[in-house]
Design goal:
The protein is mostly beta strands and 107 residues long. It is built from 2 helices and 7 strands, in the order E-E-H-E-E-E-H-E-E. A hairpin with an 8-residue loop joins strand 6 and strand 7.
């Protein structure tokens, strides 16, 4: 499993610009999240695509093919996703569960 290092992204010119998913954005969602597990990891990949994973996905070598959804549908299931910090490209936001504090990590 790839390790991520915590980074301070406040005011870092290399980490700008920051993006947050919009309600109508199409996002990739792990099957575990689609089955009802809460989102614990979010990636904004190098292509600008959002990917959402559950805590149980962190230790899996292969999660299978993701599903596609609108970010708004994830918000309907878990309104605390609105507290996710905006991310620069190639960064992750991770938390230990619903309502936990998000950490931001470089890929």
């Amino acid at each position: 499993m790839k390790r991520f290092e915590a980074v301070d992204v406040s005011g870092d010119a290399e980490c700008s610009p920051f993006f947050g998913p919009e309600v109508d954005d199409v996002v990739y969602v792990a099957k575990s999240v689609m089955k009802g597990e809460p989102v614990a990891s979010v990636c904004l990949d190098e292509d600008g695509d959002w990917q959402f994973f559950a805590l149980s996905d962190r230790n899996r070598a292969r999660q299978g093919r993701p599903k596609i959804s609108h970010f708004g549908h994830l918000l309907e299931s878990d309104a605390t996703l609105s507290s996710m910090p905006p991310l620069p490209i190639n960064h992750w936001a991770m938390r230990d569960g619903i309502g936990a504090v998000w950490g931001v990590f470089a890929d």
